[in-house]
Fold this protein.
Amino acid sequence: MSIEKLTILGSTGSIGTQTLDIVRRNPERFRITSLVAHSRWQELAEQAREFSAESVVIGDKNHYRALKEALADTDIEVMAGNEAIEEVARSYRSDTVVNALVGYAGLHPTYLAIESGKRIALANKETLVVGGDIIMAAAKRKGVDILPIDSEHSAIMQCLEGEKRRSIRNLIVTCSGGALRNIPREELHSVTPEVALKHPQWSMGSKITIDSATLVNKGFEVIEARWLFDIEPERIKVVIHPQSIVHSMVEFTDGSVKAQLGNADMHTPISYALLYPERSSEAMEHFSILDYPTLTFAEVDREKYPALDIAYECLQRGGTAPCTMNGANEVAVAAFLNHRCGYHDIVGAIRYALDNASFEIRPTLTCYDEANDEARELAERYLSRR
Ligand code: NDP
Ligand code: MG
């Protein structure tokens, strides 16, 4: 079996560190070419030493000197800034790029890695939310595989193995309901970030945990599914499933429904993406269905969670609309995490940005940069006027 050379963008984050767990367990299979982080330079230096990376990039240039000194006694090349992230994303030295960056920052590196013909293991869902059309077209043109790490999309991909496109009736994306699922709608206005960060099942980065509490994350996953599986939005359904054991399902034309089940552990979808079409010979943790005698499913309360319908609306409008939603959400989530605004202001900022942003139906990558900047400005304006 040949050794696969990996670049991990966002190696210090929740997905990044779990990806390194998989690499650690499969030393005969993977070698690390480059590791990329934004601010956590000490962790990055430790990872680079442990995995003998060829190069590291720290996004925030303020940490370049400290990182350089920390690795001074090694041959590891040290770089900083967005240009360096883009350079390693397209470097000839790696075969696969794992994109575990958070937010809009993931878009350009994914595109450049595809253009360089690399296999993509994609956790950064914002890449597809913003630029799904351009990204999937580029992947097709270059003959590049995009393997989803998001657990719902990994589940759907597994359910679709060996099936014909024409046999698919609906994709059914499951949703835990996030940290606020037991808090009544009338009480949401007083929710603090500390409460919203307590996800009942998944331990993830702070941005996606807040996105899970608002269901923006589920809206983004509908958009992600639309592009990954090339399916009309109205055939992507969302159901609440509080146990997070069924990771998603596919309903077929003959009435059969296939589901993928397992522990709520991201190591499984990460290893599925990295090892595809093989499977890991060893599970991180054994799953027993007997531990879950009751699995429940329910409709989403669309009034409690307006973000889900906004995501469908953005898909319907197409063009730069999902990019605007994403940019405004990033600003509002950061403000909420810093106690600068309330829970409802997240959807408030998204709505305001969508209602006031300019719109481009056939955007280029540059249009996305402009739409993202505009959405961020509009969200800031909304938050400052409240
Ligand atoms: P984290 O916040 O835990 O990690 C983000 C990583 O990206 C860190 O390594 C961080 O560096 C780096 N980073 C952040 N901003 C920048 C930037 N501007 N430039 C360069 N690097 C940057 O996020 P998660 O791991 O939770 O999520 C990553 C992606 O995966 C997101 O798109 C999320 O939606 C998706 N995802 C995550 C899941 C999960 O279980 N966590 C599940 C499904 C999808 P540093 O820490 O050094 O600042
Ligand atoms: Mg998910």
Q: What stands out?
A: The first helix runs from residue 14 to 25.
